[in-house]
């Protein structure tokens, strides 16, 4: 039966009491206001946080100044410059840059520098219950943050280990493609001769192929021992110890003092500190994030 039609051809339901099925598809999102504590609240249309608020919260500028930066075309969201005030973003997924520099706006992400003491395993949980990095950051992991260690240090090596729950950054920092430089201070047996510098810079033969340092400095030689600074971007196991041993200077103590621009500084063994925004920005940049 053809229902009575209006002038435009659509059925006139007021003049017809037949029950019609609507073929209109139900809206994917019904008009329910999501609760901010629900996991999917960001999925809802019109949700998100105003860009200027996100920038202010990340410490970039006051809200007012952030608005000015937006108008000046200095702010990018996911590679697109945004100049519209009030644009809403999702800080958990959107990538925000100011003047081309990535800003950490994801409050769920945590980034730490840890001074690993000697004798501590570079794992978050040791199968044999030995003291591990996880033992030091247990409180953090217990409170729901899963931190990863970025690379490893031998149990006998001390010093800087980066920890984060940002898997993408961690993976990239460990990837050989980005050539992330690490600096070590090695105390070795023997008074180092200046030829050591050339030897390590030009490459030294190891069981699994040659290894080169990017920079070598003899910091001190004293009483049959030397302190050597070695900078390299290699990630092979025991690389510094093996290089120095191959050159005739067995390592007695090894400390990692720097990863890219992040410095160990005066951190006490076993202590943890949050990375600052300059450090984080430079890490993002180094791995093209
Ligand atoms: N090289 C080493 O020999 N050991 C480390 O832990 C890191 C680099």
UniProtKB/TrEMBL annotation:
Stored InterPro entries: FHA_dom, PsdUridine_s_RsuA/RluB/E/F_cat, PsdUridine_synth_cat_dom_sf, PsdUridine_synth_RsuA/RluA, PsdUridine_synth_RsuA/RluB/E/F, PsdUridine_synth_RsuA/RluB_CS, RsuA_PseudoU_synthase, S4_RNA-bd
PROSITE patterns the record matches: FHA_DOMAIN (PS50006), PSI_RSU (PS01149), S4 (PS50889)
Isomerase listed as a keyword: yes
EC code(s) of this entry: 5.4.99.-
GO BP annotations listed: enzyme-directed rRNA pseudouridine synthesis
Classification via SUPFAM superfamilies: Alpha-L RNA-binding motif, Pseudouridine synthase
One MF term in the entry's GO annotations: RNA binding
Catalytic activity annotation: a uridine in RNA = a pseudouridine in RNA
Keywords: Isomerase
SMART domains: S4 (SM00363)
Keyword Transit peptide: no
Protein family per UniProt: Belongs to the pseudouridine synthase RsuA family.
Name of the protein in question: Pseudouridine synthase
Species whose genome carries this gene: Corynebacterium liangguodongii
């Amino acid at each position: 039966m053809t229902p009575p039609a209006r002038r435009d051809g659509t059925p006139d339901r007021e003049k017809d009491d037949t029950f019609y099925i609507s073929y209109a598809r139900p809206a994917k999102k019904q008009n329910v206001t999501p609760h901010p504590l629900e996991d999917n609240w960001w999925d809802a249309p019109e949700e998100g946080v105003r860009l200027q608020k996100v920038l202010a919260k990340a410490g970039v500028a006051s809200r007012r100044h952030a608005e000015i930066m937006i108008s000046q075309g200095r702010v990018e969201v996911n590679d697109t410059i945004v100049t519209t005030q009030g644009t809403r973003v999702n800080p958990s997924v959107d990538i925000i840059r100011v003047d081309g520099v990535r800003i950490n706006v994801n409050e769920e992400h945590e980034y730490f520098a840890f001074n690993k003491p000697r004798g501590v395993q570079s794992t978050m949980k040791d199968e044999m219950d030995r003291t591990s990095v996880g033992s030091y950051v247990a409180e953090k992991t217990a409170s729901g943050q899963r931190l990863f260690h970025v690379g490893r240090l031998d149990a006998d090596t001390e010093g800087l280990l980066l920890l984060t729950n940002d898997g993408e950054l961690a993976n990239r920092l460990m990837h050989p493609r980005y050539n992330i430089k690490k600096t070590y201070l090695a105390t070795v047996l023997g008074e180092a001769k200046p030829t050591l510098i050339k030897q390590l810079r030009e490459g030294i033969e190891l069981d699994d192929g040659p290894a080169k340092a990017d920079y070598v400095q003899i910091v001190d030689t004293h009483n049959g021992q030397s302190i050597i600074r070695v900078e390299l971007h290699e990630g092979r196991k025991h690389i510094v110890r093996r290089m120095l041993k191959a050159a005739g200077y067995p390592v007695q103590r090894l400390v990692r003092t720097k990863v890219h621009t992040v410095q160990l500084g005066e951190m006490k063994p076993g202590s943890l500190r949050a990375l600052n925004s300059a450090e984080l920005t430079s890490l993002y940049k180094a791995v093209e994030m």
